[in-house]
Amino acid sequence: DVQLVESGGGSVPAGGSLTLSCAASGSTGCMAWFRQAPGKEREAVGMIGLGGIAAGGDPEYGDSMKGRVTISRDDNKNTLYLRLMSLKPEDSATYYCAARDSVFCYMSAKVFEYWGQGTQVTVSS
Known about the structure:
Blueprint: E1 4-7, E2 10-13, E3 18-24, E4 31-36, E5 43-48, E6 60-61, E7 69-74, E8 79-84, E9 93-99, E10 114-115, E11 119-124
Parallel strand pairs: 2-11
Antiparallel strand pairs: 1-3, 3-8, 4-5, 4-9, 5-6, 7-8, 9-10, 9-11
């Protein structure tokens, strides 16, 4: 199985930015970021196919943060990134990295076999 380890979370003021990283123990197909706030369902932030943009795997983004996030991956390093920008207090959540063996991406948590432990992002007003 692939192990995923997120890093880069922290506390930032509203309007700030953060870059999250997810290191995978091996190669994977589609990778994605999800987030979950207390009392709310887990929601998709975005996903990216194997090889990223260079291989035609354009990222897709969930509605909640579209326009304020950028997903990228470095398959040489087996690492996924999430750049968060113009953060709002309502973006405070635990952010999870997910991956699946298949190269096909679907914006659903159900299709991802591998999950990280999550990294906390807190945005203060």
